[in-house]
Amino acid sequence: MRTVDVDNTLVYPPVPGDDRKQFSNATFAVRRCSRDRIAVGVRGDIDAVNGRELARYVVHHTRASRQLVLDLRSVDFFGTQGFTALYYISVHCARTDVDWAIVGSRHVRRLLSICDPGGELPLADNLRAALRRLDRISHSRHHRRWSARSEIRPHSNGHHRAS
C-alpha cells in the first residue's frame, strides 16, 4: 500500500476505481492493496451522524476480500458510535472469515482503552505492525495442513469402519 504522510494526515494518491465517500465530517476511501487485501482509510470525525455509515462502508468493501486494514490514523474525533461501528465490523469479519487490523489515532486509542480494555479488537501500534500481523496470519493459513488420520479397519461383520 502506497501512502504519503503529510502533517500526520494519511493521503491516498488518487487511483482510478478508488471509492471515496464523504459522510458528514468524515471521508472514507478504499484501496485494493492486493488480490486478498484492502485498506480503508478514514479522515475526520466519527460520531453519531456517520458511525453507522463507516460500518456499512467497510462491510460493503470487504465482501470480496480476505484481509482488511482499517486506517483510522487521521481521525480527529472518535465517539462511542465509532466503537459501535468497530464492533459491528468485528462481527462481520468474524462471520465472513476476514482477517483485519486497526491502526488508530490517539483519539481512537483513547476510546478503545475505555471501551475495549481487554484488547479484543485487533488494534495495532502502527501501520507496519498491522501489515506484519496480517502477513503472519496469511502465511499461517497457507501453510496449515490437515493432520488428522483416518484408519479404515474391517468390522467384525466384514464391513469397513472408519475410526
Write the layout of secondary structure elements.
Elements: E1 4-6, E2 9-11, E3 19-23, E4 26-32, E5 37-46, H1 51-61, E6 67-78, H2 80-96, E7 99-104, H3 106-115, E8 123-124, H4 127-142, E9 152-154, E10 160-162
Parallel strand pairs: 5-6, 6-7, 7-8
Antiparallel strand pairs: 1-2, 3-4, 4-5, 9-10
Explain the overall architecture.
- It holds the Pfam family STAS.
- This is STAS domain-containing protein.
- Residues 39-128 form the STAS domain.
- With 163 residues, the chain is an alpha/beta fold.
- The chain has helices at residues 51-61, 80-96, 106-115, 127-142, and strands at residues 4-6, 9-11, 19-23, 26-32, 37-46, 67-78, 99-104, 123-124, 152-154, 160-162.
- The chain has a six-stranded mixed beta sheet, with helices on both faces.
- Strand 5, helix 1 and strand 6 (67-78) form a beta-alpha-beta unit.
- Helix 1 (51-61) packs parallel to helix 2 (80-96).
- The longest helix is centred in the middle third of the chain and has 17 residues, at 80-96.
Short note summarizing the structure:
Strand 9 (152-154) and strand 10 (160-162) form a beta hairpin.
Strands in their spatial order, largest beta sheet: 3-4-5-6-7-8
Order of helices and strands: EEEEEHEHEHEHEE
In CATH terms, what is the fold-level topology? Answer: Transcription Regulator spoIIAA
Largest sheet: 6 strands, mixed
Distance N to C terminus: 48 Å
Helical content (DSSP H or I, runs of 4+)? 25-40%
Globular, elongated, flat, extended or rod-shaped: what is the shape? globular
The counted number of beta strands is 10
Low-confidence stretches: 1-16
Structural class category: alpha/beta
Domain tally: 1
What CATH architecture do you see? 2-Layer Sandwich
What would CATH call the homologous superfamily? STAS domain
The share of residues in extended strands comes to: 25-35%
Query: Quick check: average pLDDT?
Result: 83
How many distinct helices?
A: 4
CATH C-level: Alpha Beta
